[in-house]
Design a protein that fits this description.
Elements lengths: L3 E2 L14 E3 L14 E5 L3 H12 L3 E5 L11 E5 L5 E5 L5 E2 L3 H7 L9 E3 L5 E3 L4 E2 L10 H9 L7 H4 L2 H5 L8 H6 L4 H8 L3 H13 L10 H13 L7 E4 L3 H15 L3 E3 L4 E6 L5 E5 L3 E4 L1 E4 L3 H9 L7 H8 L7 E8 L10 E7 L2 E6 L5 H10 L2 E7 L8 H15 L8 E9 L23 E3 L12 H19 L7 E3 L7 H8 L3
Parallel strand pairs: 3-4, 3-16, 4-12, 9-18, 16-22
Antiparallel strand pairs: 1-2, 2-23, 5-6, 7-11, 8-11, 9-10, 13-14, 14-15, 17-20, 17-21, 18-19, 19-20
Helix pairs in contact: 1-15, 2-15, 7-9
Organism: Streptomyces griseus subsp. griseus (strain JCM 4626 / CBS 651.72 / NBRC 13350 / KCC S-0626 / ISP 5235)
GO molecular function: oxidoreductase activity
Pfam families: Amino_oxidase
């Protein structure tokens, strides 16, 4: 995979000028004559990206999604409150970072100016000890971003830098993919931070927050993923940790427009249609079985979450080879997490941020005041003179008493924002899920790549190995485009150009320093 830098000397479509391009596979512009029939299994970000590109090139695409709507883990659905209002419930807050070049490129299909997103001014953090931090003041140009974080953060005292292990820390100055997994996949994020001797306060206030964005306990998370995040946000790009959020609920802002876009390009979108089995054919392609139909396709994109992929592969004994199937079977799912959305009868204090990351408050990991930035919530809050607050609790023990966790999470909100203690709860919704990928210590070798043993079957999702420095929603979008590119390349059709933060540290001086760690 060849990469080159963006040579325009500036920000194209909001990209850092040092972003690197992954050239599209060459070929004719689109299919002519008989186009192949392709099934995309899974209607989340990865599946939508794959279906979009394939349809734009003229393939006959059928998109299968088991839920009622598109969006995957960012889907939304209507719910009726006690006051009779119909609102949209979802699985909660997601940050659309400026480094999500390929995801943002997907959204530009239906929203060229990305007007459906709005910028939040900071990524504030708060620990129960009283420590507070944020990233708005941190310089965004590497390496000043990393130096500024250390200099401005209250978690680094004068003696902390002296006590750090410089040899262990140097590796963060030049993170590369996949080399970072070869170096760090064998230890946990917690052990890696202890090896560097980062101050304990920084563990809890900053790095633990990053770890838990993977819905995982940092003691279980591969250090390679933490190092990759450090590269993406501090030393690989100049966008920093400033992010956008949708102005309206996910369906209205994102998925309904993309659904219409797909159908406008001839995609047969089949929601509430889970695929039960895949049977490969000797001549290539496969037969897909749903509850109602058995249909032959020339190629497949499997864009499922870890559990869904495990289940479908287990139900399809002829799919792939023994080694690939064994590795899929070993994929793990992160522990359960809770999203609590509360409709309160009075506003929270006017100076509360739209989003706050928390640590040291029991199970509470972050608080969102939705009416600060989401139009639907703001309209409800204005009409009722109330507020809409969302709480997240990640990596909950599978055997935990869920009612007790919900109650404790609410109690911790009262500690974080004391004015909510006197608020009356007009309505509430609690979503418990356990379907995010787990990136455990030593687990990288089992994660699938985009290409499977069958050249007519590709894989996409946020757990897929891409060979690029991407994570979370951006990994999902990037892998979806890569999965479509792999199929288009076989057919001699031009693919999608992709973008990424640099695959190595941006500074030659820092790269030479990092080499000392080896």
């Amino acid at each position: 995979m060849m990469l080159r830098r963006d040579g325009d000397g500036g920000h194209r479509h909001g990209r850092d000028r040092r972003a690197e391009v992954v050239p599209a596979p060459a070929g004719r512009a689109r299919f002519t004559g008989d186009a192949p029939a392709v099934a995309v299994v899974g209607g989340g970000i990865a599946g939508i990206a794959a279906a979009t590109l394939l349809a734009e090139r003229g393939a006959r695409v059928t998109l299968h999604e088991s839920e009622e709507g598109l969006g995957g883990r960012l889907a939304g659905w209507p719910t009726r409150l006690a006051d009779g209002t119909t609102v949209t419930m979802s699985r909660g807050f997601h940050a659309f970072f400026r480094q999500y070049y390929n995801l943002r490129g997907l959204l530009r299909r239906v929203d060229p100016g990305l007007g459906s997103l709005t910028r939040l001014p900071d990524y504030p953090l708060r620990h129960s000890s009283g420590l507070r931090d944020g990233f708005a003041r941190v310089p965004r140009t590497p390496p000043l971003s990393a130096l500024g974080f250390v200099a401005l953060s209250p978690t680094f005292g004068p003696g902390d830098l002296v006590r750090m292990n410089p040899r262990a820390a140097l590796g963060l100055l030049d993170v590369r993919v996949p080399e970072v997994y070869e170096r760090l996949d064998g230890i946990s994020a917690t052990d890696f931070l202890h090896r560097i001797r980062f101050p304990e306060a920084a563990h809890h206030l900053a790095f633990e927050v990053f770890s838990r964005s993977f819905f995982a306990d940092p003691r279980e998370l591969s250090a390679a993923e933490l190092a990759l995040m450090f590269h993406i946000y501090f030393l690989g790009s100049a966008e920093g940790l400033i992010f956008d959020v949708p102005r309206e609920p996910f369906p209205a802002a994102l998925w309904d427009p993309l659904h219409r876009y797909l159908e406008g390009h001839g995609v047969d979108v089949r929601t509430r249609t889970p695929v039960r089995e895949v049977r490969p054919l000797p001549e290539g392609g496969a037969v897909l079985t749903t509850d109602d139909l058995t249909t032959r396709y020339d190629a497949l994109v499997l864009a499922l979450d870890s559990g869904g992929l495990r289940h479908l592969v287990a139900a399809s004994p002829e799919l792939g080879d023994a080694d690939w199937r064994d590795r899929i079977a070993r994929l793990r799912t992160a522990p359960p997490f809770l999203v609590s959305r509360l409709w309160l009868d009075r506003p929270v204090a006017h100076d509360r941020p739209g989003f706050l990351g928390t640590s040291g408050y029991g199970p509470l990991d972050n608080v969102s005041v939705l009416d600060r930035w989401e139009g639907e919530a703001a309209r409800w809050a204005r009409r009722t003179r109330g507020s809409v607050v969302e709480l997240h609790a990640y990596a909950v023990a599978p055997d935990a008493d869920r009612a007790a966790v919900q109650a404790e999470t609410l109690g911790q909100l009262h500690r974080v924002y004391p004015e909510t203690r006197s608020a009356r709860l007009l309505d509430e919704r609690h979503e418990w899920r356990a379907d995010c990928p787990m990136f455990p210590v030593g687990g990288y070798r089992d994660r699938p790549g985009v290409r499977s043993p069958d050249p007519t079957v590709t894989v996409a999702g946020d757990m897929v190995r891409t060979g690029l420095p991407v994570a979370l929603m951006e990994r999902a979008a990037t892998s979806g485009f890569l999965a479509a590119n792999a199929l288009l390349e076989r057919w001699g059709v031009r693919g999608q150009t992709l973008w990424t933060v640099p695959r190595a540290g941006r500074s030659a001086v820092l790269r030479r320093l990092a080499a000392l760690a080896d």
